[in-house]
Fold Branched-chain-amino-acid aminotransferase.
Amino acid sequence: MSEQQKAKPEDFDWDNLGFEYHDLPYRFRAYYKDGKWSEGGLETDANIPVNEAATGLHYGQNIFEGLKVYRRKDGGANLFRPDRNAKRLQNSADRLMMAPVPEELFLRALKEVAKANQDFIPPYGTGATLYLRPFEFGGGPVVGVHPADNYVFEVYATPVGAYYKGGLTPTAYVTNHYDRAAHGGTGAAKAGGNYGASMLAGDEAHKAGYSDVVYLDPRLHENIEELGSANFFGITKDGRFLTPKSPSILPSVTKYSLLAVAQELGLKAEETTISINDLDQFAEAGAMGTAAVISPVGSITHQGNKHVFYSETEVGPWTQKLYDRLTAIQYGDQEGPEGWAVDV
Ligand code: PLP
Ligand code: COI
């Protein structure tokens, strides 16, 4: 790709950003070879030469992360709990038999990419952020089903707005017969294959007018797992913040943060089994994740029956409070627990 096609800050309408890829000037790459990681550094080319027998192309040795850079009011910028993403990428690497990226390398890469592309961190108050996408894949070459000897680690950046169209306006979700991950499979890893497995289900849901799929547990198809790109929460009528406990869902950084924020706000917070047949207990429901932030779930349609939560048009009061507190910590407007907001 030529340098002329690279994005420029003046190309962006910060208040109306979608969730899309843009080719920014810099990304960070490091290479694992002969049992060790290179120092790594910034590169300008968005394209990576890949061996045709790379395990990342054939056997699913590809894993990723997602986190955001938040522009503060004082002009600086924050990362949110990046150590959690570093650890999760290492856990994903262990599950896929890939070389783990050291936390120091991971954090250095995030900061270098954020600083090098700082003109692309959207202004404070727009609700837009600079999304960072760390990823790693097996560079091969291997033809049998075995882990690669070589790996590539990269972090690229792209400015983004809301993931689920509407932001804090509730949207509709639906269950279906597909699974994105197996019991004992790779659901708890952020592995590319889980997302490949979700595309057909997601496409059918989108074409039918829904925001995303509510996946059910792969053994019984009875309990809520998570959404295609976010974890699920419900707030009961008696003031409990509940979120599914399952070995086959992604351990969401936002989820663990909101479990703490919910307690702080006076809700009882708990990870537990949530039956799809027990939605009546909830006054409000939502999706939570880095991309989704907190997006109210207006309704879930299951086997043709539509269950409406708080409202199909208005965000509920608890969801609003959770959103306000979480985003205030992320943007540095309010002090949060130690280590959550990290200066870039
Ligand atoms: N579940 C899935 C399937 C996701 O893709 C994401 C997004 O990363 C999440 C949950 C939320 O995780 P986090 O809060 O760490 O972004
Ligand atoms: C994220 O929230 O970072 C995600 O990974 C969601 C999606 C864009 C895959």
